[in-house]
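Try it yourself: sequence plus erythose-4-phosphate, in.
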Amino acid sequence: MKFFIDTANLNDIREAQDLGVLDGVTTNPSLMAKEGISGKDNVLRHYKAICDIVDGDVSAEVIATDFEGMVREGEELADLDDKIVVKIPMIKEGIKALKYFSERGIKTNCTLVFSAGQALLAAKAGATYVSPFVGRLDDISFDGIELIEQIRLIYDNYDFDTQILAASVRHSMHIIKCAEAGSDVMTGPLSAILALLKHPLTDSGLATFLADHAKSANK
Ligand code: E4P
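Structure, out:
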């Protein structure tokens, strides 16, 4: 399973990249706003800065909700760098835009997906990635992981090339469950990735090894 980091924070992206396990980045307008990035030129510059750090795909979301606007913004984003994946919302005009970009070999990520039917449409339109929002479904008492399993079954039934990008991943257990469900990619915060490291027996075991080594070295 590929690991993407879901942030526009350059320090977090650098830290994940330095760890050596990062396969890409996803952003959204809320994450850009959180970093205080606004204005077209600053936004484009920031996406370029992200591309310069990471070895892998970088999802950059369009703001327009009409077909022509999405195409215009998406082409501008795609021109920035080969790593850019144009992120398009799951709406009717978005389906047309997914089709447009897929026919031109431009990578896409269909975002705000909450049902198997939406995922099926995104795959039919040729999306490179589909982003079911696991955490936001859990927030409203729907099972986000169950949706990943459902999409996996449908995509495997018909050999769709679209990759399942489990989004809105909030914690390490989500990552494990996405891997069990056969998600191709997961995107989450740095904290969720780093939490995979943690086990109390690792910490106590290492402390004992180091203490025993120190004792024998002092003899
Ligand atoms: C997906 O690409 C979104 O950027 C993101 O995963 C949403 O996560 P959230 O529900 O934690 O805001």
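One thing you can check immediately is this: The two ends are 47 Å apart (CA to CA).
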